Fold this protein.
Amino acid sequence: MNHHTCLRAYLAGIFIPTLILPLLLMALVLGKLTLPAPFPIERMVVFPLAFVPCLWGIWNMLWVASHNRTHLPLGLHGAILPFLLMPAGASLAKCLGVITLGPASVTWFQAIEVPYWQVACGFAFGLVVYYLVWKYIVGFVNRVLGVA
């Protein structure tokens, strides 16, 4: 079964973000309705809902297309993705006025100040999560769809 390999790779890639992002959206909406949040949460979800699933699918297609030449493990390939997502998301957030970069911290919505060391720890945690999700879940879906 070698028909539509790119389509199957794309579908395997979008599987996880398509399942998780609506749950995050629901949590954010419930938080917005129940907690007195001093900032507009809805501006925070536009980028992930529109961009991340598509990028995951394209990223998986890229792995399938390049795997015969690079022999890069799927988990490592997936762990590279946050190095593209974080600068793109931060640039968009900066342009939209969601974040302000200071000398020692990032300020979200002019209300929440996060030191850079916490951002770095969160990024490292995200790398581990991406590695594990890509290695086990996306790899499993690739095998089920006959892509890997």
Summary: The mean pLDDT is 86. Residues 5-144 form one domain. Residues 31 and 37 are 8 Å apart (CA to CA). The helical segments are 5-34, 42-70, 74-80, 82-96, 116-144.
